[in-house]
Amino acid sequence: MGTKNQNTSGGGFELQSQDRSSISKNTPPSPPLVADDANFFVRNARKVYHPIGFRKGYNFSFWFICCGAMLGFCAARAMFLDIEGVFFESTLLAEKYWYSNFSLYRIGITIHLACVVPAGILVFFQFMPVIRYKALYLHRINGYLIILLILIGNAGALMIARRAFGGGVETQAVVYILATMTTTSLLLGYFNIKKLQIEQHRKWMIRAWAYLGVIITMRFVMLIAATIINQMGSYWMGVTCGELEFGFIDGNNTIAAETAFRARYPDCIDSKGMILSDKNIAIQGLTDGRVEEAGVGYKLGFGMAAWVCLVLHAVLAEVYLALTSRETERLRMVSYEKQKARGWANPGREGLTADRIDGVPWVPRQTE
């Protein structure tokens, strides 16, 4: 009886197994777990960004928009390296006056453009993952070169801050602060990578280039501001008589231009008929007015635009870093493994991390 029951139960098990096998063979395979694979756009986008090292679409999108904008902006302004030619033809007459007549400012603008334009082009490749993965030595050399170029370019910017776009105190302040923020971020990024603290290196480099990207977005804000200033017609700025005279004479018949200048701005002439080059004359900001008025219209909005965009970029950089905390944690584990392999005392905490100063010490995930 017992034997029969065992055989019956055994036969039943075999029957159930066969039924399951036949069912599984006749059932079509399950669809892929990743729903995005059904999206035509995502499938084709991956064919673009996977070969250059990106594994996530949002990373590629931010790189393409931000670094692509920097590449395009700097490539378009590579022609400005011709200071005597293209740059002088494109810049405001007031700036041309200072850059052409005073060696300090001429040296400063030359250094600034000669450094930041190539750096903005090179950074496009610096944030490309495939170079880090397959040609790390190129990533390092390119990184050192970019840091050096930006630091020297910042020195050039400080030299011209007093005269750039009017050189008002708001303009000087934002130039000094922007130079300080970018220099600090680049140096901290360099320090952390030397300590193999990769996630902190990533953070500080993203911050540095977010700040440097201000020069692009502020152009749009300047145009909007200039339009508003022109419509309101109630903004004025002091301009030296030397700048005004230069605007009249530059490229014109000297005698006729000099006569026109003296007739329009008699307050610039003293009792002996000499020009008071350092005297300031109030000029209205009108982008559709005379040349000197149009220049003032754009100069008035420069400092404001720089401040607005600097705050905007700084906030957006922190938002992006906060939203990509998983990538930060992943890179910290990579840092931990590399520092541990070197035999360092505090693996995962050798760089500038918050828990080195205050907070709960970080613990690698596998030992939690």
UniProtKB/TrEMBL annotation:
Residues 15-27 have a biased composition (Polar residues). It comes from the Eukaryota. Residues 1-31 are annotated as: Disordered. The chain crosses the membrane at residues 60-83, 103-131, 143-161, 173-193, 205-229, 304-323. InterPro entries: DUF2306_membrane. Keywords: Membrane, Transmembrane, Transmembrane helix. This is Uncharacterized protein. It comes from Arthrobotrys oligospora (strain ATCC 24927 / CBS 115.81 / DSM 1491). The lineage of its organism: Eukaryota, Fungi, Dikarya, Ascomycota, Pezizomycotina.
